[in-house]
Amino acid sequence: MKATVDHLVPRLGGLAPRYGIVLGSGLGSLVETVEGAVRIPYSELPSFPVSTVSGHAGEMVIGQLRGVPVVMLSGRVHYYEKGDANAMRGPLEVLRGLGVDTLILTNSAGSLREDMPPGSVMRIADHINFSGANPLIGVDSDDRFVGMTTAYDAGLAARMENAAKKTGTRLHQGVYMWFSGPSFETPAEVRMARILGADAVGMSTVPEVLIARFLGLKVAAASVITNFAAGMTGAELSHHETKDMAPVGGARLAAILAEMIGDGD
Length: 265
Description:
By secondary structure, the protein is an alpha/beta fold. It has seven helices and nine strands. Strand 7 (171-178), helix 5 and strand 8 (200-202) form a beta-alpha-beta unit. The relative contact order is 0.21. The model has no long low-confidence stretch (mean pLDDT 91).
């Protein structure tokens, strides 16, 4: 990805971004919080993967959030698109090559808790890799044995919690379970997920956490709750529901992230 980094450096305008933010389905509105935004379609970036999922803009956005330089990836490539858990390694390597040392991941997810309805925001405190896929399979180095006890940085978690309090936004916390997708979970799978300790389910993020920790990046993550999981309401799930509901919680998450990043270390 050196060619992509070399291509981007002149576009930074002297900015030295430390924060990278990955935006999930329907969360592109967070881009509007970036000041002096420079938008670069993924299609213009050498060897950059382009998502096939509606609701993902497919562009890199460079600018400032509360005066702090950031790089946003508006849209991600998912495991279920081509069966490649390592699909986001290139983009994350590019972020690191641009100087990013802190990665904030966002996604849309289904709630397993009655007290966490659609429109809520959940800080991911831990995850369960139910898919069994791993982007580090095939890495020919002992570096592949990445410790995950502190996958989600405690300092960043505290800052996110503090930012939520300052903005008056309720921030849930819980365990995110990664299913491969693209089909939604069955009611039986949702019951199983609850038994195993999950609070929300989704189809992304976990591969990026694994890659980010492999690359030495600090990680924080949050889910925007777009629906109750299968079997909780009797209604069928759809991607349209995800796109319709994501902006509701997305606005809340945008306020939290702006406050979190703007408060400094």
